[in-house]
Amino acid sequence: EVQxxxxxxxxxxxxxxxxxxxxxxxxxxxxxxxNWVRQAPGKGLELVTHFTSGGxxxxxxxxxxxxxxxxxxxxxxxxxQMNNLQPDDTAVYxxxxxxxxxxxxxxxxxxxxxx
Length: 115
Fold this sequence. Notes:
By secondary structure, the protein is mainly beta. The protein has no helices and eleven strands.
C-alpha cells in the first residue's frame, strides 16, 4: 500500500524558512518521480516542484531560487526546503506520486506565512 506522510509545516514570519518532509512507503522510492503540490486558500492546486526519477529537479517560477527539493533514498523521504517565505506561500502542501496508473497524495501539511 502506497503511503505518503507529510510533516514540518507551521507558522513562520515573512522571510523565514521551513523544511517539509514526506515519508514514503509501499513503492520503490527512487524509481518514481515525486512532486510537491500546494493549495492556497480559495485557489486550485499548484505544482511547486518535481523531482524526476532520473534525479532532475523542476521548479515553478514561484519557487525558483527559494525552494529546494531533495530526497533521501535510505529513509524513503523527500524534502522541501523553503527559504525567504512570503505570505503568498501560505497553503497546504502535499507530496504526490504517480504510481502504477494512480495518483497518491499525503494528508498535507499547513504552511502559514504571517507576521
